[in-house]
Amino acid sequence: MLAQAGTAGVGAWLRQGIPDATVLGRRYRRLREANLMLLAVHHVAIISSDYETSKQFYTNKLGFVVLAENWRPERQSWKCDLRHGPIQIELFSFPDPPSRPSRPEACGLRHIAFSVASVEATAELLRSRDVEVEPIRTDPYTGRLFTFIADPDGLPIEFYQDAV
User: Fold this and answer.
1) Residue 23: per-residue pLDDT
2) What contacts 24+ positions apart, CB below 8 Å, involve 101-108?
3) What three-state secondary structure class fits 161?
4) What is the dihedral of CA 67, 73, 75, 79, to 10 degrees?
5) Which of 55, 72, 52 shows the shortest CA–CA distance to 63?
6) How far apart (Å, rounded) are the C-alpha atoms in residues 98 and 100?
7) Distance (Å, rounded) from C-alpha 96 to C-alpha 86?
8) How far apart are CA 143 and CA 158, in angstroms?
9) What are the residues whose beta carbons fall under 8 Å from the beta carbon of 3, sequence distance 6 or more?
10) Does an H or E element contain 15, and which?
11) Cβ-defined contacts of 36-43 (< 8 Å, 24+)
């Protein structure tokens, strides 16, 4: 009944005095608000210490495609939009960016993770492209396989096996 009520019908439905209508009304509002909030991750922004090296890594090693590349003279900074399927990365350069404090337990973003069909096949492909791949592990909670690599600045990148 709630799903069929629609936005306009909920008020009338609540006024009918149906038991627990207030609780159900709050749940409906939270559901409606949640649906208006987040749809997907739009992009991940990465600041590199060596723009060309990082751009080559993300395009040649991971297969991202450059959508747009812009020099921003007022900031002495490059901004490069990269895409791989539905995944988008904004790659930035800034003069003298600070180093990442530690790996991977620094406060803030811990790592980025990409879903893959096969961790073994992904690791093999990355190794063939001269990327150092950590040993493949099993997530103790899901039983799924995963592994990590690092980008040129040491940003941890995880490859997590999607459901088969």
Assistant:
1) 60
2) 103/150, 103/154, 103/156, 104/156
3) strand
4) 10
5) 55
6) 7
7) 31
8) 16
9) none
10) helix 2-15
11) 40/86, 42/88, 43/81, 43/88, 43/89, 43/90
Instruction: Read off the pTM.
Output: 0.72
Supply the DSSP symbol for 100: P
For the segment 77-83, the average pLDDT, to the nearest whole number, is 96
Tokens of 157: 């990148």
For 87, the 3-state DSSP assignment is strand
The answer to whether the beta carbons of residues 61 and 24 sit under 8 Å apart is no
Six token digits for residue 11 = 């008020």
Q: Name the helix (H) or strand (E) containing 53.
A: helix 51-56
How is 102-149 classified by DSSP, letter by letter? Answer: STTTSSS---EEEEES-HHHHHHHHHHTT---PPPEE-TTT--EEEEE
Q: What is the chain's length?
A: 164
> Given pLDDT bands bounded at 50, 70 and 90, which one contains residue 40?
confident
Reported as a single tens digit per residue, the pLDDT across 88-128 is 999 999 998 887 776 666 677 778 999 999 999 999 999 99
3-state secondary structure of 36: helix
